[in-house]
Amino acid sequence: MRGLTEREIPVGLIPASSHPALTMGAETAFGLRKRAGVLHYCADTGPLVRTRTPSVVTVHGVASRWINVARTSRQESTWRQRVNRAISSTQALITVSESSADDVADIFNLDRSEIVVIPHGVDFEKFATRVDLSAELKERLPVEFALYLGNIEPRKNLVELSGAFGQNAPGGLPLVVAGRQAWNFEESEAAFAANSNIIRVGYVSDQDRRALLQRATVFVFPSLYEGFGFPVLEALAAGTPVVTSRRGALAEVAGPSWTTDDLSANGIREAVDCALRDDEWLRGIGKAGQRWATTFNWDRSVEAHIALYERVAGL
């Protein structure tokens, strides 16, 4: 939105609600009215029937093609029906990685060539520019720590991450966990609460998010599936060593990160321990990670979106 506004392209918001059913109705009703411009439904779901205004939808990925812990079967069924209706009711489909395009095409029986892949960018300067931690957080944190920052939900593999930082934690580091409770988070939170080596700081401000990423000894992100993987790129932009998986789009965005295929507690522990003992990798990862992060550029992403909007609008 900021990129469009900077190019003097007017931007508005499609109505939404705190209740999913009301949002579904609002998105559908909004699309039924003929208006100038293009509608972009950017969060997987959208209208239930064909819009009268040219429209596109972004679907970020399909975790359930590979794993069965992302949602309950009922949640997954509802999500797939909503996404399928959104795809059928709009004129173009965007996704954010080649991996996600493969998944969306397979699950929704689509022609892969008709899916437009537009990767996100990362606000490089924002994460590379040093900021201070809030006084509240500074009092709670040790000088050195491992960090997980992101949503609390099963797809992030946080029960195994908690196990990796129990007894004999890699590097003797405590694990700081920051992020909001998203869905089906109870088991993860119970694992955190039972582990005295975990510092759970909850949802943090934007400034503290940047400061945590910049100060972490290592950022650990053992996700079972990602449609894109913003936190990995943000940590790399901050110059912080990253240990992550290769699942989903992470194979495309992890770059020089230390990656592991073994996402059990023991596998995560061993991967972090090996990374922290590799002096050559540690010496180079800061600059290498930042160079890699700059290749994910918001200007390119915005221009690709504009080109698609123009095509859909017939300009």
Structural class: alpha/beta
Overall residue-averaged pLDDT value: 94
Looking across the biggest beta sheet, what order are the strands in? 7-6-5-8-9-10
Morphology: globular
Radius of gyration: 20 Å
H/E element order: HHEEHEHEHHEHEHEHEHEHEHHH
Please outline the major beta sheet.
Answer: 6 strands, parallel
Describe this structure in words.
There is one protein chain. 39% of the residues are buried. The model has no long low-confidence stretch (mean pLDDT 94). It is globular and about 60 Å long. The chain has 315 residues and is α/β, with parallel strands linked by helices. A six-stranded parallel sheet has the order 7-6-5-8-9-10, sandwiched between helices. A four-stranded parallel sheet has the order 1-2-3-4, with helices on both faces. The protein has 14 helices and ten strands.
How does the SSE layout of this entry go?
Blueprint: H1 2-6, H2 20-32, E1 39-41, E2 55-58, H3 73-89, E3 92-95, H4 98-107, E4 115-117, H5 124-128, H6 135-140, E5 146-149, H7 158-164, E6 175-178, H8 186-193, E7 198-202, H9 206-215, E8 218-221, H10 230-237, E9 242-245, H11 250-253, E10 258-260, H12 265-277, H13 279-293, H14 298-313
Parallel strand pairs: 1-2, 2-3, 3-4, 5-6, 5-8, 6-7, 8-9, 9-10
Helix pairs in contact: 7-8, 7-12, 10-13
Describe the structure concisely.
The protein is of the alpha/beta class and 315 residues long. Helices cover 43% and strands 12% of the residues.
Annotation keywords:
315 residues, alpha/beta, six-stranded parallel beta sheet, four-stranded parallel beta sheet, 14 helices, 10 strands, 43% helix, 12% strand
